[in-house]
Design goal:
This protein has 744 residues and is mainly beta. Helix content is 3%, strand content 46%. The relative contact order is 0.06.
């Protein structure tokens, strides 16, 4: 017993001698282990226990531990205090053990399961580390490259101390290295503040000095760089002077971001509260945040833009990389309350040509003033002249954005009478770009100026609004009701727009009172439509009137004289019938739609030409016909034929018949009674004189199209037909042709 006691005392004495200074790795597995030492044990087996002694000179300490597994079974360790009471369990990899009193602690290492293994064991003290690096004030400058270090295999960690004012905001950089390097920042009372591991911001709480033990979580050897840059009262930042609008070349800053999550800082000073515009050429995925000197975030890219600064003073712009490759960038900031560099004031008339804006730098911001009156609803349009994107904001005299938040309305209302500005810029910039341009329009939606006046027109007549430029029209309505308003260019392609009332609010044309309205091509769309775009304006009652009557099956002809012209015809067809639309084989089929007696849509050409249209609602029925897109004005012919069996079409003779077509007739219809055809019928048509082609359609008694041929001078088709009567329609050319039609 005496011998055992003396050996323990010798061990404690040795541990006390080694405390506070690193020692060489233990020569064998067990014995005294100095703070900061890494013991390497080459073998442990079975139920063997290997005992280490660690002396801790200060009470209420934290022991950082690193127990690594080599090969074989995993180790674990139990820690007991000077009184023999259990304190904590050490598991594999990095850990921590909170101690109460000073003294010598025993660490007993064993295996989870019987077998063999090897391990390393290292310990580091929070209060009495083997060594600790004090970080100077200059370390927290953005100009600092940080503190480089290297952790050997099994190291329990490196100690750092620093002092910074409580409330300081630090940017914590990832230590990088070859593994998972991490550690906790603790205040003077050993309370957790932040974790060093990822790139993030940290606000220092509690009081200093602050402490940090940095370790690789699995004991792997690795280099690292500890870096913490102070955002509050930032130092080491490039100074940015606020640039004028227009070319900012003398005021530009630059920065480099070598890898993802890297940051750079820029300092700027404003002499009064106001709004700041931040421009970073961001095609390389750079985000930015503006902080005040207390380290509070004021605004960021994709958040509140422009940036409203609450007071005069210094501000820090932090740029951060979201890209994995190195980035060199350019930056400029503009005090949006200033007007230096703004272009000459522009008016709000729609008749004016669009402004052409030049940009010579990727971080240039442009400014265009205009005079507005309280209550005006104003909208800005912008379009690049090459592939690019334009961003634009309407600001007041303080630089604050006027159009804020989402609105279902277009434009925004000016809150007061005064001078406003459109602040705009291009977002993309090519490597060879030197002078890029875009167009800008600033227009008033309420009580607009410069819009040509149009009034509702009539069906069958040319559009009421003559061909001309300017993207808006003033619509004068004297009879309340529902209307359709559209534009058509000289190739008959439609131009759609938005209708606004006198205050610039959206209205729908289907229920207009008497009054003046504004129709704008493109409406709330962002792009410029300049005065080189011309169109006619068609304003028609939604329910046609004054439509000449035509008999179902009869051919009729008309001529479009201008783009956008709309014809209508009244059809004498009973409810329940089925109609199909036909055209000459040498003619153009207009776009048609059928309306019922209440003016509601029934069907259109897609149904009328491919199938047939059932007339389910009460009539009288109206056919509305428009030119096809891209088709020049000209003559057309069409016919609406009843195909449901209850027709006046003659019976198709068993031995066939001859059909003559011409200008007054390009279709011929025939019936085949139910008892005069089989389940399969073969139809043949052949041109015997004249020119042109024909096409054949076969309908059932319910008006369902069963067979149809393409255009050809002759064709034979075998058609499977259901029971019941059939309707056969042959279409031919207006130019005149004679065809022989047979069956069987």
């Amino acid at each position: 017993m005496k011998k055992w006691f003396l050996s323990i005392c010798a061990a404690v004495l040795a541990a006390s001698t080694l405390a506070g200074a690193p020692a060489a790795a233990a020569a064998d597995c067990g014995g005294p282990l100095a703070i900061g030492e890494v013991a390497t044990c080459a073998s442990i087996s079975g139920t063997q226990e290997q005992v280490y002694f660690v002396s801790v000179p200060k009470a209420n300490d934290v022991l950082y531990t690193m127990l690594t597994r080599g090969s074989g079974e995993s180790p674990r360790a139990a820690v007991t205090g000077p009184t023999g009471a259990a304190v904590c369990t050490i598991l594999s990899d990095a850990g921590r053990c909170e101690l109460k009193s000073a003294g010598t602690y025993k660490i007993v290492v064993s295996l989870y399961f019987e077998g063999t293994g090897d391990y390393t064991l290292g310990v580091q003290s929070l209060k009495s580390p083997s060594a600790c690096t004090t970080l100077p004030a200059s370390f927290f400058s953005f100009a600092s490259t940080g503190q480089a270090g290297s952790l050997p295999a099994g190291a329990p960690g490196d100690c750092f101390r620093f002092n910074q004012p409580t409330g300081s905001v630090l940017r914590l950089w990832s230590p990088k290295g070859n593994g998972d390097i991490q550690g906790d920042i603790l205040d003077a009372d050993l309370q957790y503040v932040c974790q060093i591991r990822y790139a993030q911001n940290c606000t220092l709480t509690g009081s200093g000095p602050y402490r940090l033990n940095l370790a690789e979580a699995y004991g792997n050897p690795t280099p690292y760089t500890l870096r913490m840059s102070r955002i509050s009262n930032a130092a080491g930042c490039q100074v940015l002077r606020t640039a004028p609008f227009g070319d900012p070349s003398a005021y530009e800053g630059t920065g480099s971001l070598p890898q993802q999550e890297d940051i750079a800082c820029h300092k700027t000073r404003v002499t009064a509260p106001g709004t700041l515009g931040v421009r970073i050429f961001d095609v390389q995925s750079i985000s930015w945040t503006v902080y005040d000197d207390a380290g509070q975030a004021i605004c960021s890219k994709g958040g509140q833009e422009p940036c409203a600064l609450p007071a005069a003073g210094d501000y820090t712009v932090i740029a951060e990389s979201g890209h994995w490759e190195p980035i060199d960038y350019r930056i400029a900031v503009n005090a949006l309350a200033r007007t230096t560099g703004c272009a000459a004031a522009t008016g709000l008339s729609w008749a004016a040509d669009a402004l052409v804006v030049h940009q010579s730098s990727p971080v240039q911001t442009n400014c265009h003033p205009f005079r507005g009156t309280a209550g005006d609803r104003v909208i800005a349009y912008a379009s690049s002249t090459s592939y690019n994107e334009v961003r634009k904001t309407i600001v007041d005299s303080t630089g604050a954005a006027v159009c804020t938040g989402f609105s279902e309305e277009d434009g925004c209302v000016l809150p007061a009478t005064g001078t406003y500005r459109v602040v705009s810029y291009l977002t993309m910039w090519g490597p060879d770009a030197t002078d890029e341009t875009y167009e800008l329009q600033v227009r008033r939606l309420s009580q607009p100026a410069g819009c040509p006046v149009v009034r509702p027109g009539a069906y069958n007549a040319p559009p009421s609004g003559a061909l001309g430029p300017i993207r808006c029209r003033t619509l004068v309505v004297t009879e309340p009701g529902a209307y359709t308003v559209r534009g058509f260019d000289d190739e008959n392609y439609p131009k759609y727009g938005q209708l606004y009332d006198g205050s610039g609010l959206k209205v729908r044309a289907y229920n207009l009172p008497a009054g003046r309205f504004t129709w704008v091509v493109g409406g709330g769309a962002p792009d410029v439509i300049d005065n080189n775009v011309t169109y006619v304006t068609s304003v028609l009652p939604a329910k046609p009137s004054g439509c000449p009557a035509v008999t179902a099956g009869a051919a009729w002809q008309a001529e479009y004289t201008q783009p956008g012209q709309v014809f209508c015809r009244s059809l004498d067809v009973p409810q329940g019938a089925r109609l199909a639309q036909f055209r000459p084989t040498d003619g153009v089929l207009p776009e048609a739609r059928l309306l019922d007696g209440a003016g509601n849509y029934v069907c259109d050409s897609a149904t009328l030409n491919q199938y047939s249209c059932p007339l389910g609602e009460p009539g009288p029925y109206t056919a509305v016909l428009e030119q096809r897109q891209g088709v020049a004005p000209g003559a057309f012919a069409t016919a609406f034929t009843r195909v449901d069996g209850a027709t006046d079409c003659p019976v198709l003779p068993a031995d066939g018949t001859t059909v003559q077509t011409g200008e007054d007739r390009f279709t011929a219809c025939f019936t085949i009674p139910a008892d005069q055809h089989g389940a399969t019928e073969k139809f043949t048509y052949q041109r015997i004189s004249g020119a042109g082609t024909a096409r054949l359609s076969v309908f059932t008694g319910e008006g369902v199209r069963y067979c149809r041929t393409g255009d050809a001078p002759e064709r034979t088709v075998t058609c499977t037909t259901p029971a019941g009567p059939l309707t056969v329609v042959l279409e031919g050319p207006l130019a005149g042709g004679e065809f022989r039609l047979t069956r069987g």
